[in-house]
C-alpha cells in the first residue's frame, strides 16, 4: 500500500558500495518524467550523475548538507529553464519528491540536497558551483540533487503517532479537526 511507502521513506545519507542496476535507474527516470507539472509544461530536466568523482565534487556544493552525495551510487540533478514556467520551483520539487518515493519503492534510500537559494561560500551560490561542475547553461536554475543508493543505515519508519494532527484545521482556520 502506498501509505506504507510513505511511512517507510526516510532521508538516507549512508549508502552501500553497490551499483544500481540499469533497469532500476530507468525506472527512477521514468518516475521523474511522469511528474505532473503546471499546465503540463514540464520545465524540468534531469542530469544523471553516476561518476563517483563528480559526485564527490558535488558533495562540496555547499558547506553543510551536501556531503552525503559523496557516497551515493547516483545523483540526479533536477534543473529547470526558469523562463519556461513561473512555477518551476513547484514543478521541480514535485519531481524530486516522486524520485524520493520511487527510490523507496525500489528498496533504495535517497536524500534531497537543496541547491536553489543555498550558498557555496560568501561570494558564490551553490547553483553556480553545480552549473559549472555539470556544464549547465546559465538560463537553467538548479533546484536540488537527489542522492540515491542502496541504504547502509536503518531509520525507524514513521508511525501514526508522529503525525502532527494539530496542523489540520476543520472548515476554518483555528478550528481543530483532531483533539490533542
Ligand atoms: C526541500 C528540502 C530540502 C532538503 N535539503 C536537504 C539538504 O540540503 N541536505 C540534507 O542532508 N537533507 C536535506 N533534506 C532532507 C530533510 O532534512 C529531511 O527530509 C527531514 O529532516 C525529515 O527527515 P526524513 O526525510 O527522514 O523524514 C531536505 C528536504 C527537503 C524536503
Q: What do you see in this structure?
A:
The protein has 180 residues and is α+β, with helices and mostly antiparallel strands. It has a single domain (2-167), classed as NADH Oxidase (3-Layer(aba) Sandwich), CATH 3.40.109.10. Helix content is 29%, strand content 17%. It is built from 5 helices and 4 strands; from the N terminus they run H-H-E-H-E-H-E-H-E. The protein has a 4-stranded antiparallel β-sheet with strand order 1-2-4-3, sandwiched between helices. The two termini are 27 Å apart.
**Ends distance:** 27 Å
Are there runs of 5+ residues with pLDDT below 50, and where?
none
Structural domain tally: 1
Strand content: 15-25%
**Small molecules bound:** flavin mononucleotide
The number of distinct helices, counting runs of at least 4 residues, comes to 5
| Spatial strand order of the main sheet | 1-2-4-3
The helix-strand sequence is HHEHEHEHE
CATH superfamily descriptor: NADH Oxidase
Could you say what the CATH topology is called? NADH Oxidase
**Rg, Å, rounded:** 18 Å
In this structure, how is the largest beta sheet organized? 4 strands, antiparallel
Summarize model confidence as the mean pLDDT.
98
Structural class, by secondary structure, is alpha+beta
Q: Please tell me what the overall shape is.
A: globular
Indicate the CATH architecture: 3-Layer(aba) Sandwich
Amino acid at each position: 500500500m502506498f501509505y506504507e511507502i510513505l511511512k517507510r521513506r526516510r532521508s538516507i545519507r549512508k549508502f552501500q558500495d553497490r551499483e544500481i542496476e540499469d533497469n532500476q535507474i530507468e525506472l527512477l527516470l521514468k518516475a521523474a518524467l511522469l511528474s505532473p507539472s503546471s499546465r503540463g509544461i514540464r520545465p524540468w530536466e534531469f542530469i544523471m550523475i553516476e561518476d563517483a568523482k563528480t559526485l564527490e565534487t558535488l558533495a562540496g556544493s555547499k558547506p553543510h548538507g551536501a556531503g552525503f552525495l559523496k557516497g551515493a551510487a547516483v545523483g540526479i540533478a533536477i534543473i529547470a529553464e526558469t523562463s519556461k514556467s513561473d512555477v518551476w520551483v513547484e514543478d521541480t520539487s514535485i519531481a524530486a519528491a516522486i524520485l524520493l518515493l520511487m527510490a523507496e519503492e525500489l528498496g533504495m534510500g535517497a536524500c534531497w540536497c537543496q541547491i536553489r537559494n543555498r550558498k557555496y561560500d560568501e561570494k558564490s551560490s551553490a547553483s553556480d558551483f553545480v552549473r559549472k561542475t555539470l556544464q549547465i547553461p546559465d538560463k537553467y536554475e538548479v533546484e536540488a540533487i537527489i542522492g540515491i543508493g542502496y541504504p547502509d543505515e536503518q531509520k525507524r519508519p514513521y508511525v501514526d503517532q508522529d503525525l502532527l494532527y494539530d496542523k489540520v484545521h476543520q472548515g476554518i482556520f483555528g478550528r481543530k479537526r483532531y483533539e490533542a
